[in-house]
Amino acid sequence: MMTEKFLKRSRRVTQVGFILLIFLIPVFDILRYDTATKELFLLGRVWTLGLKAGFITDHSLTGSLHVAVQFFLNAVLPWLVVLAIFPLAGYIGGRFFCGWLCPEGTLFELSDYLTLKLLGRRSLYGKKPNDPELSRPNRFIFGMLALLSMIVIPLLGGIALTGYFVAPRTIWHQILTWNFTFGVKAGIIGVSIYILIGSIFVRHVFCKFVCAPGLMQMLFGWASPVSLRIKMDTSRIAECTDCRGCEKACFMNVLPRKNKRDISCVNCGACIAACHRELGEGKGLFHFQRGEKQSPLVQEAATNGDTHRTRQKGAIDDAAGIKA
Ligand code: SF4
Ligand code: SF4
Question: How far is CA 299 from CA 8, 98, 149, 240, 296, in A?
């Protein structure tokens, strides 16, 4: 069962695990382009087109076919696979990647959390109706944590991403000897500034309007009849206490009680956890669902013109600030 603890813990595990993976991919040559040797490393090996020696001088039909097949298999096909990853992920899981794996999303959530602790709201630009209330935290500790995060995280991100273009052992050697080449310095500083500005000033606006993988998942998830999404059990809406915990848990500013497909929803499950917290473990009103199927009770209500349930639904819509 998707309990509150299970949801929270498993999401943190996948988020931290994916960040570790981003660090380790270039370390183990799983994927990186070495700007010094001009070699592309893929799954531990130097990637080549696999062409036979002397293929340029071989003008026979067999020679041409060999070049065409190798080019398709080693150049076109890998790119098609790479380009299909996010549309496919969106078609199946909606924006699941954004909510459970994306390192930037994780960082933005951390920034929200620290801002909430320091200023009492998620955003730097003002309080929103769905900002959670907090008991008075120790601002000094959270101020120190925020300062530390602003220095350490961008630098680590800069080192990790520069490792996709310069061998990680070269980078660490330069850091330890404090003797940097221009490429390493530019890579670390450039990425650090990008991360710093993104996590302080931009955050989820980037996820909603700029991020290309996010937009692809959004588009394909929206169009897909089978993509994963959050659903409210409308046959039990009378149990809703209108605590607004689900809305306050949502860092993407979605109103989950609308029970409609929302392209901003990243399927994080925070609303599911919040409702379990309010109504008791296992009794929450939200769940993950594939596609748009309605609960049999709601279908029955719709068919029979069940005015009682319609009225309940109307009450929830009003509570969620939805205009009919
Ligand atoms: S609606 Fe729920 S699952 Fe979707 S982003 Fe908001 S909290 Fe996460
Ligand atoms: S759906 Fe659940 S979390 Fe949201 S307001 Fe109702 S009881 Fe609270």
Answer: 32, 32, 49, 20, 5
pTM (2 d.p.): 0.86
| Ligand 2, atom nearest to 249 Cα | 3
Q: Report CA-CA distances (Å) from 288 to 226, 256, 268.
A: 12, 12, 10
CA 259 / ligand 2 centre spacing (Å): 12
Tens digits of per-residue pLDDT, 14-51?
A: 999 999 999 999 999 999 999 999 999 999 999 988 77
Interhelix angle for 103-119 vs 4-27, to 10°? 130
Beta bridge partners of 40: 33
275: nearest Cα among 225, 236, 222: 236
- Residue closest by Cα to atom 1 of ligand 2: 240
Distance in Å, CA 102 to ligand 1 centroid:
15
Ligand 2 close to Cβ of residue 248 (< 6 A): no
Ligand 2 atom at shortest distance from the alpha carbon of 257: 1
Q: Whose CA is nearest to atom 4 of ligand 1?
A: 265
Cβ–Cβ < 8 Å for 228, 89? no
Q: How many residues does the chain have?
A: 324
Give tens-digit pLDDT for 208-250: 999 999 999 999 999 999 999 999 999 999 999 999 999 999 9
257 CB near ligand 2 (under 6 Å)? yes
The answer on pLDDT for 284 being more than 50 is yes
Nearest residue (by CA) to ligand 1, atom 2, is: 271
Return the percent helix, strand and coil in the chain, to nearest 5. Answer: 60, 5, 35
